[in-house]
Amino acid sequence: MSLHTTPASADDLRLPELNKWLASLPAPALKLDTLRPASSDASFRRYFRIDSPDGATFIVMDAPPPQEDVRPFIHVAGVFGETGVSVPAILAQDIEQGFLLLSDLGSTTYLQLLNPDNAHKLYIDAIDALVHLQIHSKPAVLPEYDRSLLLRELMLFPEWYVGKHLGLTMTEKQTASLNQVFELLLANNLAQAQVYVHRDYHSRNLMVLTQGNPGILDFQDAVFGPITYDLASLLRDAYIQWDEEIVLDWAIRYWERAKRAGLPVNPDIDAFYRDFEFMGLQRHLKILGIFARLYHRDGKDAYLKDLPLVMEYTRKVAYRYKELAPLVKLLDELEDKAPQVGYTF
């Protein structure tokens, strides 16, 4: 769920069906004339807010079949909810029509509220919630974040960012070089311990709550996968950037908490941070492809402004590791930039 509100158009064919469904619900009582847009996201899903006579508010999800399927959302809401983290409760559902009535976690996202004064507390809350979620992980409950899925995500970069957005066709040598980097990332990602992975655990999907902070949204794509993935989503956020030393501090605080909780993070902090960076790089290459696809295929240009930050993250990590030098060279060639050198590790 993101921040872009989408008013319903007059010829919205689903709205009458949605209203009819809401009117048929025995409880809770709802004031149908208060239905209003709450937010939409990068998919076909959209969200409305509706009031009850006693002043309470609820969220209505409209996930139109066949493009969307509410069953994964329902499943993950149950799995995550059982761990004790704050997720919306499902109060009513119509799976065939793609309608859900949810409890309302408010309208203030982390992204809206974050500033240098409150960031530390909000991020520590998010880290504590992440550790709490991860310690309850069990295999065979969520789909596996396996090699084929990780590779499919990486391939969004050459197809959509390089091919469609930059309008370039890579040479055989460049393709082989990129595939070499992909293999390095996959080997690292797949060697990491496996836990529940939200997959978009970042400032747009975390709601600021007075109790049980944060509220967690947009979890329907959750999987069982690499332990550093959600931390990379949180600390190397495509929508907000923090100084490297602050990110390092938060990463270490997560690592210390995870170790105390008995989570199987890499016991060596340098090796753990490398895991975190390689996982983040996989994610950012994927995001470059996704943001390009949202624009070129789906006509959504709001994400183009976020591409420079994602590319900055990508380049910074690639510069830091000698084995990622082929990626730096490739990016320089694709973007026609002069080669730069600077390895930390």
UniProtKB/TrEMBL annotation:
Domain Aminoglycoside phosphotransferase stretches: 34-262
Which keywords label this protein? ATP-binding, Nucleotide-binding
Output the Pfam families linked to this UniProt entry: APH
- Looking at the keywords, is DNA repair present? no
| Stated name of the protein | Aminoglycoside phosphotransferase family protein
Which species? Herminiimonas glaciei
